[in-house]
Amino acid sequence: MAEQRTGGSGEGVADVLAFPEPPRLRRRRNLLLTLGAVVVVVALIMLVAVYSPVLALKDVSVRGTRIVGAQQIQDKLKPLQGKPLPQISHDDVERLLQPVVQIKSWDMHFRPPNTLVIDVVERAPVAVLKKAAGLSLVDAEGTPLAAVKDPGAAKLPLVDGTDKKMSADVFATVTSVLGTLPPSVLALLSDATASSVDSVTLNLKDGRKVVWGNAEDMELKSKVLQALLKMPEDPQNPVHTFDVSAPRHPVTK
């Protein structure tokens, strides 16, 4: 009986072919690696910018001041000296400048590497207030801005705060009225008086007077008064009084 043999070379090992990575996947991987590197670099730059002494505050430049001195504002901001510019916030500056009453508004920006620039808008003085303690400039809200020695140099009307009739309400009315007038008209006034909130009178340096009345229609009254003051004078019929208390029907006499 013939012997049957079985034989073979065993299980064949299949060779696995290594296909190249698709270009799309390779580009995506490279892009992710690049973006990751950029993020790390930007984070390091931001970290250096925020905390580096290279950007520490050394100088404060102040612009737009006339009443308050630039040095006064710089002194107020001294606590910020040495602090990196990126760490200085609007609130930091606001907290330090709030006590400076002469400032109406302000803005800030940085001038790298070490300078903080403050642009100031001051409160506008509208009168010289006379009180027992002396003379001072006040704005339309009655806020004292600065002491003055020569009221004439200010080119503003005098308001007598020592007058017993000048109550707080009357004073507020007078200053609000003056606040509606342009500097060119304020410079023509010698003083402003009132015995009540309904009887504001403006006296001009040339002896004429303006009957203003109360605080109603102030903007209209201001425009009417400016127009009346620009009218040519008639030597035959000189005007001594401008009555704008009813601004839609002004009277001159």
TrEMBL record:
Transmembrane feature ranges: 31-51
Gene Ontology CC: one annotated term: plasma membrane
UniProt-recorded name of the protein: Cell division protein FtsQ
Keywords: Cell cycle, Cell division, Cell membrane, Membrane, Transmembrane, Transmembrane helix
The POTRA domain, residue ranges: 56-123
Top-level taxonomic group: Bacteria
Domain Cell division protein FtsQ/DivIB C-terminal: 127-232
Gene Ontology BP term (one): cell division
Pfam families: FtsQ_DivIB_C, POTRA_1
